[in-house]
Amino acid sequence: MTSPFSDPSILVANNADVRLKQIGEKILHRERISFEDGVALFAKGSLSYLGALANWVREQKHGDKTYFNRNFHIEPTNVCVFACKFCSYSRIYSNREEGWELSIEQMMHIVKSYDGKPVTEVHIVGGVHPKMNLDFFLELLRTIKAHRPDLHIKAFTPVELDYMFKKAKVPVEEGMRLAQEAGLDSLPGGGAEIFHPEIRKQICEDKVDAEGWLHIHKVAHELGMHSNATLLYGHIESFSHRIDHMDRLRQLQDETGGFNTFIPLKFRNMDNDMSYLKESSVIEDMKMYAVSRLYLDNFPHIKAYWPMLGRQNAQLALSFGVNDIDGTIDDSTKIYTMAGSEEQNPSMSTADLVNLIKQAKRQPVERGTLYNEIRDYSEVVLEEMND
Ligand code: V47
Ligand code: SF4
Predict the structure, then answer these.
(1) Most ligand 1 atoms within 8 A of CB, residue of 335, 367, 369 to mutate
(2) Which ligand is nearest to the CA of 78?
(3) Please, are residues 217 and 180 in contact by the beta-carbon 8 Å criterion?
């Protein structure tokens, strides 16, 4: 079943704005849009125009298929040497009351709690603890793989990797090779924020810069790993900063083809140094998804991360270019609950996810991390699902 936005050609032909009409025609002819086109879409495009075009691209690429996976998160620590202004989650090392740090044994306790359950991925990401070093994380990777070799390990942002490699005095190439040998399968998309130095130096000046972030992903791709990319939007950045960010990603993707998924992350404003800012409206959120789908023509997938966006808006995003809704998540991921997401209990059963996708008249497909299709749930009756 296709959505009402399946054929935007009439909308494009009738657009009174010549510039928007030209951009729409490029998209319908599968031509790449330029930097200026991207900025113009944000500045002038109506929600319905952007949505119809993004939905068309989404359906050309994936039809109604909407992917989800069964994963769980481990956050090794919330202690962090950095001080990103938007972060509600990190605590300094000396804060013994609110900081936590998990031992390998404690993390293995989490992994083992999924024994016999059909999860396919563990997502490991956290703060940058001054005492958790490369050897500690290599040991963690090896221990997880020894226990459950089939579990895909998607772990560590370039922020964490850059810090651990520098501390261990190993070049990125060597560090990534060691991590891969120990069991690292792919990289999540975090730590990207906004690449442009004008913004980066105001919101997260001390952590890895754009070049460092992109280099680590490039090295991962050269080693045969895949990865994701994020963009933190809805704070002090302009439309050109967003397009600049996506442009750098699009260029690297042209070179390596290693990115799977782009995940726009909505800035949440609770309890951080940027709490004075208002959060973006749902209209801006949907436009962000739509322009991402239109600009990143070489990214296979656009994901709405529901624990951050909320499940209803994530469902809506399925008509604005999004074809992936992340996973069951499970366990307690704290990055968003501490930043003010309405999702205080970010866990959905497979039946909940399938239901959410079916309500949006899309086709639910369970995937592995690398988008290998595990099961099509179109015909599965919800009452027959017991997990
Ligand atoms: O890099 C931190 C963001 C990211 C806030 O690859 C905030 O599949 C909004 O990258 N408001 C980490 N965002 C999470 C992440 C991620 C999530 C889901 C899936 C994947 C994937 C990656 O969280 C950080 C930062 O950009 N973040 N604080 C905040 N107040
Ligand atoms: Fe640390 Fe990440 Fe929070 Fe920045 S966003 S302070 S790097 S935990």
Answers:
(1) 335
(2) 2
(3) no
How close is the Cα of 85 to the center of ligand 2, in Å? 9
Contacts of 274 (CB under 8 A, 6+ apart): 85, 86, 203, 235, 236, 267
Q: What is the pTM of this model?
A: 0.94
Residue 108 domain-assigned (yes or no): yes
Which protein residue's CA is at the shortest distance from atom 18 of ligand 1? 305
The pair of three-digit structure tokens given for residue 110, joined into one six-digit string: 């989490």
Structure tokens at 144: 């997880």
pLDDT in 10s for each residue of the chain, 387 residues: 444 467 899 999 988 899 999 999 999 999 999 999 999 999 999 999 999 999 999 999 999 999 999 999 999 999 999 999 999 888 877 777 778 899 999 999 999 999 999 999 999 999 999 999 999 999 999 999 999 999 999 999 999 999 999 999 999 999 999 999 999 999 999 999 999 999 999 999 999 999 999 999 999 999 999 999 999 999 999 999 999 999 999 999 999 999 999 999 999 999 899 999 999 999 999 999 999 999 999 999 999 998 888 889 999 999 999 999 988 766 455 656 666 666 666 678 888 899 999 999 999 999 999 999 999 999 887 666 656
Ligand 2 atom with minimal separation from the 207 CA: 7
| Residues 212, 95 within the same domain | yes
Q: Do 192 and 341 sit in the same domain of this protein?
A: yes
What DSSP line would sit under 42-104, residue for residue? HHH--HHHHHHHHHHHHHHHHTTEEEEE-EEEE--B-B-S---TT-SS-B-TT-TTT--B--H
192 lines ligand 2 (CB under 6 A): no
Q: What is the rounded CA–CA span in Å between residue 41 and residue 291?
A: 7
Considering the domain architecture, whether residues 212 and 313 belong to the same structural domain is answered as yes
Q: Are residues 36 and 108 in the same domain?
A: no
Cα–Cα distance measured from residue 119 to residue 121, given in angstroms and rounded to the nearest whole number: 6
How far is the centre of ligand 1, averaged over its atoms, from the C-alpha of 20 (Å)? 32
Provide the domain limits for residue 28: 8-61
Same-domain check for residues 150 and 15:
no
Q: In what order do the strands lie in the sheet with 65-69?
A: 324-327, 65-69, 363-367, 373-376
